[in-house]
Amino acid sequence: MVKKRASGGIRQKPCSPCTKVNTLKPIKEVDPEAFKLLGDETRRKIIFLLRVKEFTVGQISAELGVTPQAIYHHIKKLETAGLIHVTREKRCGHLIESYYQATAETFICSIGAFRKETVKVDMLDVLNGLNKIGFKIESSDEIASKLVDFETKTMKHKGTESLKDAIVKLEKDMDFMTLEMVKHYADIMLMSDKEFAKRQEFSREFRKFLLSVCKEKPKF
What we know:
Helices cover about 50% and strands about 15% of the residues. The chain is an alpha+beta fold. The protein has 2 domains: about 1-105, Arc Repressor Mutant, subunit A (Orthogonal Bundle); about 115-215. The strands form 3 sheets. Strands 1-4-3 form a 3-stranded antiparallel sheet, with helices on both faces. Strands 2-5 form a two-stranded parallel sheet. A two-stranded antiparallel sheet has the order 6-7. The radius of gyration is 21 Å and the shape is elongated. The chain starts with a strand and ends with a strand.
């Protein structure tokens, strides 16, 4: 939020350089309405920036080439939804500028206490989809829950802060999903042999479970 006096306007240039964010929660559950906000490309870009550093409205405006007024509109929606929050405020001339950061690295759609049950229903749809394309695979609440656990563990793996700093420089040239893929591939190449071996072991465990519940595979 940018507070302004009667004689002032919204400041478009930052007063001081942004700083790295504090350690973020790996995963945060948010309600469906909050999750829908990420369907907007500009809001996704804002979240991407605020996962790496704390920024003011003016700084985000300069990074994305969008007017401060438009950024402020998006910021208020994201803040109300709990996807970002104010980390500090600093006086800059006649203005008091707020610095924002994301509240988590990854957001998962939640419906309160029923989130896991809802995800299980979605995972059952995935299993049914696999059956429809020829995989004779077991489909049950127990198997769906196990798959949800595997997916959650996968999402908890994050790259280094220096990698995030480098990737944010590509923000103006690539869309959100492309940047996520760049980060994913870079992360794999930067892993130590021990870290990569651990990832492979986890992948083998995941695949072993999938094969254990699959009675027959289609021939594509």
